[in-house]
Amino acid sequence: MRSFMQIKIYRGKFIAYAVFVVFIGLALGALTCAVLLDQWVGNSRNEAAGAFSRVENSLQYDADRIEAFMQRVYSNSGLVSDIRSFLGNNAEGYLTSRLQGSQYNRPLVSFPDDMKSFLSNGGKGDITQISLHTEQEANVVSFDNNGNTSYLFRLPSSDETFRETIQKGFVYHKKLSDPNQISRQLGEFRFLVSSERIFKTGQNDRLDEAAAVSDSGDVYLIAGNGRSSEKLIRRIVADGRTHGFLSTGFLDRAYFVTYHSSEFDYRFVSTVDLASLIRQKANVLLIVFLIVLAAMICVLLLIVYNLREDANFLRRIIVSIGRVKTADFTPVNPARYRRNEYGMIARELDDMIRQLDRHIRTNYLLKLKQQETEMKALQHQINPHFLYNTLEVIRSSALVNSADHTSDAIATLGALYRDIVKNENIISLGSELNLLQKYLKIMEFKYPERFYYQFNVDPALIPLPTVKFWLQPLAENFFIHGFHPESEFNLLIVTGWEEEARYVLEIVDNGNRISEEHLVEIRQKLSRGDDAPADSIGLRNVYTRLRFFYGKGFSMTIDNNEEAGVKITVILSKEATNDVQAADRG
User: Fold this and answer.
1) How many CA atoms lie within 13 A of 100 on its CB side?
2) pLDDT at 533 > cutoff 50
3) Which of 26, 65, 316, 532 could hold 541 in an S-S bridge, CB 3.0 to 4.6 Å?
């Protein structure tokens, strides 16, 4: 980071990018938190709507049950008779009247028992009190949670027991008419539906603060913390809105929603404190903060990476220019070029230096090396002894064969010498294979019916550029060290193929194997960077020339075959051959 911060243009860019990233990160974080908060408030609103719907369903269910009970009363004369006995009497009067009106052939009908079985549901129902009123007084039947029944007789209608408040519950009024004379009213039923039982479903919901408010202003707190919650509920009712936000402190806000019952005289009010909601969801908000922070850090690191890379390319350009000024064309490690102007300039500069280096090595150093190799070849390989032996073979062949066979041998020898003495330094691999083929054809004349050769080279390898006269020394090693003159089958196979990223050329024979100690020594000599000695142009000389020509894209291995002979493998990377071809075109 220090490297690009020292450059003024990159320092200004980094500060601008950092400010922009922080601003965008904070904006996205705030927007995400706002969306989440709105979703949580919506969930609270849905929970309140669900609770209100369940309360409404319960009240409607109780209303339907009461209506069904009244229909049951009018359809049963025994119940009507027992209700008349219950109405306006005390306990003794009710029992006496029942006994007087009973018939021996019919079972006694009990109005309280019928109510208990039909409405109380074993004490689990919402109806906890039923009173039967005349104009002045009333008798009361109550049911506890266990389904037990208790009675109160002759209570004045103005008694506190009959005061209707939402704290107690909802009162359903049903007139009791004479079945024989509908216009004549016998009394009035009052069914009390307990608020505690009705709103217990709302207490099980995840409501922050909730209450039922009657039209008279009475408040039944369903969820909350006492007087403060009741005070807030009254403020919401006085506000008059069905939903919205209400200030509860300097920075505190509460969201509320109000539902007005269309069938019953009350409003359902639910509130949620935003501060409490945020505290409950603190883990989610922390995760959002960490995600936004991690994203900001990643973006800043990416910016740092890009600025550092650009700074490195700028520094590389400066270094490359300095190398050119000092005529330093030594290869450097390849760089990953960015797809921008800096990368284009750096790539072109490095390519220019490589081309200059390739041009110097090809046109001067390689010429010197090639001349040295050709001199050694003339002195050591194509010596008078070789020429004498070849001519002796041709003479013997002329004695036993036709003139055409002898002519071919002489033509092949002449073509080989002409190709050797040509001044070309760089030829195609196909031309180099032709040189080898001429040499091997002469060896076929020398060892008739005892030596065979075979070429299996892909066409893709034929046009590759290479240095001249390096395959024949590898083949001559076979005749010097591995050939069996007494054997009837000496074989040399040259195979070449193309792979995804390289070209492979193998020279395989079936002659003598190399001892492991000597093989290790040969490999060590090839791995050293010094030139071959003046009295040898063997493997080391070939390796040096090819390594000098192809660079690091060349490698050569020597191994023993499993059954017999030696295998020499030459590997050329496609990148190295492409560089050589580009240098030749330049």
Assistant:
1) 8
2) no
3) 532
